[in-house]
């Protein structure tokens, strides 16, 4: 089962059953925090839930650690998204390496809210991609303008 095809309710039910069996925690008391705590535990047995869901444990772990966590974690506020965009644009325009972890941590420290690393990294990556895309669009439109000017000059100078 590809990660995108997981039924959220069924998958969580199966994961909760596994937590119940391993930790003897009543299913009604298994909150999102308990789920996140237990799935981070290296002792968590992914084999049984994966078998019950007819998938491999790698796909299941990935869905739970990425998709599920993203669903329950806080999203960046509008103000923090604006701050993130400002710093990413500034770094990009000054030719900083946007893959630099120190730069990312510095930008994250400028935000008002405290965000899960995955939430921040997703927002950072999307902002970085948008910055690069916008820069490429600007450069290509400048190139088109430059090409028109060059063609005009060639005609005026008789090179064509």
UniProtKB/TrEMBL annotation:
Protein name: Uncharacterized protein
Organism: Hexamita inflata
């Amino acid at each position: 089962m590809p990660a995108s095809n997981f039924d959220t309710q069924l998958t969580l039910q199966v994961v909760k059953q596994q937590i119940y069996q391993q930790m003897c925690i009543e299913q009604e008391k298994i909150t999102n925090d308990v789920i996140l705590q237990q799935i981070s535990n290296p002792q968590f047995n992914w084999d049984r839930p994966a078998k019950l869901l007819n998938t491999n444990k790698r796909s299941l772990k990935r869905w739970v650690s990425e998709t599920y966590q993203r669903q329950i974690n806080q999203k960046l506020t509008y103000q923090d998204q604006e701050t993130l965009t400002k710093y990413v644009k500034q770094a990009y325009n000054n030719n900083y390496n946007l893959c630099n972890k120190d730069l990312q941590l510095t930008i994250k420290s400028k935000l008002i809210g405290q965000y899960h690393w995955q939430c921040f990294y997703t927002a950072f990556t999307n902002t970085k991609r948008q910055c690069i895309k916008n820069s490429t669009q600007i450069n290509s439109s400048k190139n088109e303008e430059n090409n028109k000017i060059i063609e005009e000059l060639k005609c005026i100078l008789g090179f064509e």
